[in-house]
């Protein structure tokens, strides 16, 4: 019998050939739920959406064209919104309030929660009622972290589009408009839950804006363009969905009744992100770290010109040697940290570790992003927040755990006996890579 080494140990010798890293997003069930989540948001096949609309043009999908006849009330209903506003001890910044295009100070709707909850930034339902009744729009923010149905839906949709997501809900009183015409620096899916809302969509004044290029810096251009003909002028009904690429101008006004819609923001990973990571790696080049000459007048273009020429040449030379693997590693750290896998229940997970037997069934944590690589005598598992190093002989078992359906611990391949299989499985349960099936 061979026992696997504890964390930090070396295990028994193994020297497989180095292999390219293998990455994955959960197991087969994740792929199915990801496809289903996207199908709820767009009325065309995923391939057509990717080719014709993704990052390019808006797409309106009517409820009758989408697969769920009940619309989106299962994700967040008006009753659910009231629950959040009244009984969950919500705090800022999980609520924002806007009226007549202005965001109101949080002090107007927050305060202490009474005995034992004196924290003074809690949402006060009485104050929220007054503002909403006076025509203010309520924005419930970060619902992908606070509301169970949206935690699951956002995780699945994030796997489908391959980008980090966030979810806000907008509750607008009858006839009101919370925000003036503007653009977002992220793509959005608008999911109309309840009521009717009139949307006017105009082409971008700045195509594909970055997060550092918000609409406020182009307010005059935005206002002028909004006076022209709309590219899309439509009233969203319950169950309708609208996709808007970043940069497209939009405004929305509730109609004869109050409106509730969800905005799923897609935090775009761009080519500029590649540039940022390349520049981060360029710090390894000594020529690019060189100090400017003594006494250089940085305000003088003639003094800067020769330094700029040499810097551009050094950068061009360095970029020609840039390794895709190094850039991918930095992008992985950026993207994976922004998207969490499915929640785990710490006490239940700890109990499962204690009770684990060879007959126990386990499965990869839903929505888990992972990368597996063999490095010498170790197999390295990279997760969204940690790296796990194991003896290389564990590679077949780890791969089976991460890529397949629920598996019995005693059936894990590549290990000599159940003692090794239990040791490995307990380690991965403790590292939150697996859950009980």
From TrEMBL:
<protein>
    <recommendedName>
        <fullName>JmjC domain-containing protein</fullName>
    </recommendedName>
</protein>
<dbReference type="Pfam" id="PF08007">
    <property type="entry name" value="JmjC_2"/>
</dbReference>
<dbReference type="InterPro" id="IPR039994">
    <property type="entry name" value="NO66-like"/>
</dbReference>
<keyword id="KW-0408">Iron</keyword>
<dbReference type="InterPro" id="IPR003347">
    <property type="entry name" value="JmjC_dom"/>
</dbReference>
<feature type="domain" description="JmjC">
    <location>
        <begin position="136"/>
        <end position="283"/>
    </location>
</feature>
<feature type="region of interest" description="Disordered">
    <location>
        <begin position="1"/>
        <end position="29"/>
    </location>
</feature>
<keyword id="KW-0479">Metal-binding</keyword>
């Amino acid at each position: 019998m061979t026992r696997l080494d504890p964390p930090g140990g070396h295990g028994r010798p193994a020297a497989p050939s180095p292999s390219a890293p293998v990455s994955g997003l959960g197991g087969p069930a994740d792929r199915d739920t990801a496809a289903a989540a996207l199908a709820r948001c767009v009325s065309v096949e995923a391939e057509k959406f990717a080719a014709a609309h993704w990052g390019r043009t808006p797409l309106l999908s009517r409820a009758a064209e989408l697969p769920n006849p009940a619309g989106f009330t299962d994700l967040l209903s008006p009753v659910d919104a009231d629950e959040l506003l009244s009984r969950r001890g919500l705090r800022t910044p999980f609520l924002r309030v806007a009226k007549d295009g202005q965001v109101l100070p949080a002090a107007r709707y927050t305060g202490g929660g009474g005995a034992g909850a004196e924290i003074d930034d809690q949402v006060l339902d009485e104050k929220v009622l007054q503002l909403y009744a006076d025509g203010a729009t309520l924005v419930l923010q970060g619902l992908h972290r606070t509301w169970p149905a949206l935690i699951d839906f956002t995780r699945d949709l994030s796997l489908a589009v391959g980008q980090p997501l966030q979810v806000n809900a907008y509750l607008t009183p009858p006839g009101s408009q919370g925000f003036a015409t503007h653009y977002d620096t992220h793509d959005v899916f608008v999911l109309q839950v309840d009521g009717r809302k009139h949307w006017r969509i105009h082409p971008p004044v700045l195509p594909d804006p970055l997060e550092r290029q918000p609409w406020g810096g182009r307010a005059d251009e935005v206002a002028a363009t909004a006076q022209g003909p709309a590219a899309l002028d439509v009233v969203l009904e319950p169950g309708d969905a609208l996709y808007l690429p970043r940069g497209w101008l939009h405004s929305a006004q509730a109609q004869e009744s109050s409106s509730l819609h969800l905005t799923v923001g897609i935090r775009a990973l761009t080519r500029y992100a590649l540039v940022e990571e390349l520049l981060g790696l360029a710090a390894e080049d000594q020529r690019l770290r060189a100090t400017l000459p003594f006494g250089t007048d940085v305000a003088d273009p003639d003094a800067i010109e020769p330094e700029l020429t040499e810097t551009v040449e050094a950068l061009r030379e360095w970029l020609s040697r840039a390794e895709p693997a190094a850039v991918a590693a930095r992008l992985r750290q950026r993207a994976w940290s922004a998207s969490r896998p499915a929640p785990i229940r710490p006490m239940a997970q700890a109990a499962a570790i204690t009770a684990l037997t060879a007959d126990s069934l386990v499965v990869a944590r839903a929505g888990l992003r992972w990368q597996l690589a063999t490095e010498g005598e170790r197999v390295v598992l990279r997760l969204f927040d940690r790296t796990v190093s194991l003896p290389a002989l564990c590679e077949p078992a780890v791969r089976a755990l991460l890529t397949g359906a629920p598996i019995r611990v005693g059936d894990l391949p590549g290990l000599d006996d159940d003692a090794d299989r239990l040791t490995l499985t307990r380690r991965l349960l403790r590292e939150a890579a697996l859950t009980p099936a």
